[in-house]
Recover the amino acids of this structure.
């Protein structure tokens, strides 16, 4: 008989970590614990992201925790679809108008395009859930392409530095994800099958730098009367910092 979609280990994906090794109730202990990493972004996310991304990212953290705890089919889809819809929100509200398709004339039309595309993608995700994660990771290449295009027009060293740090965190994250997915036998042989839990932390760090970059470019396009400036709290010289965007209103000419 077909297992219940809510049953433990009914998902199409099982990560490298040994199941139920540390708890009889939690399938992947470390992946479950580190799945909550996205919760921390709610406290560190800049104000403009707080209402939408600040809610959708922690929600993705909730579903990630549930998925790795149960490895259920429903948990897998909730985990993946929450990420898809978080990306859809980000694209809908902060995708620069200059990159709109030629047939799109307004932000409202782009909302509809993003919404329809997301709904279709949601239904397609049920066909072969095992490929969903690869498709979601593929979106990162489009985001990196957009950042590269914006950096070509920007000579602010702080912006380039923040973009470089974001990419470094992302490279470490995607390397951990691929290692866990494709080299599981090797890591189990050396008794270290925890690279997917590293992915959770590393991708959260990459997002921590990505959000201020998105806000910076959004201010340039949507609030031209203000001059955005990237900074680090508590200080640029600290080894562990929280990046942020400050708005400086230019002095009016007499």
């Amino acid at each position: 008989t077909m297992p219940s979609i809510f049953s433990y280990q009914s998902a199409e994906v099982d990560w490298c970590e040994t199941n139920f090794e540390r708890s009889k109730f939690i399938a992947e202990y470390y992946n479950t614990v580190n799945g909550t990493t996205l919760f921390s972004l709610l406290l560190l996310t800049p104000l403009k992201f707080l209402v939408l991304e600040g809610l959708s990212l922690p929600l993705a953290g909730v579903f990630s925790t549930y998925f790795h705890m149960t490895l259920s089919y429903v948990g897998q889809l909730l985990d993946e679809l929450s990420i898809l819809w978080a990306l859809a929100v980000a694209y809908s509200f902060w995708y620069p108008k200059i990159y709109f398709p030629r047939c799109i004339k307004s932000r409202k039309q782009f909302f509809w395009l993003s919404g329809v595309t997301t709904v279709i993608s949601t239904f397609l995700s049920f066909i072969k859930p095992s490929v969903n994660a690869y498709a979601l990771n593929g979106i990162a290449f489009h985001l990196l392409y957009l950042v590269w295009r914006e950096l070509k027009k920007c000579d602010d060293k702080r912006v380039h530095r923040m973009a470089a740090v974001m990419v470094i965190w992302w490279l470490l994250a995607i390397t951990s994800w691929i290692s866990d997915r494709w080299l599981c036998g090797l890591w189990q042989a050396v008794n270290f099958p925890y690279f997917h839990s590293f992915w959770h932390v590393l991708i959260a760090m990459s997002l921590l730098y990505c959000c201020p970059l998105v806000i910076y470019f959004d201010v340039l396009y949507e609030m031209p009367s203000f001059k955005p400036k990237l900074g680090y709290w508590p200080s640029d010289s600290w080894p562990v910092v929280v990046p942020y965007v400050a708005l400086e209103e230019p002095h009016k000419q007499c």
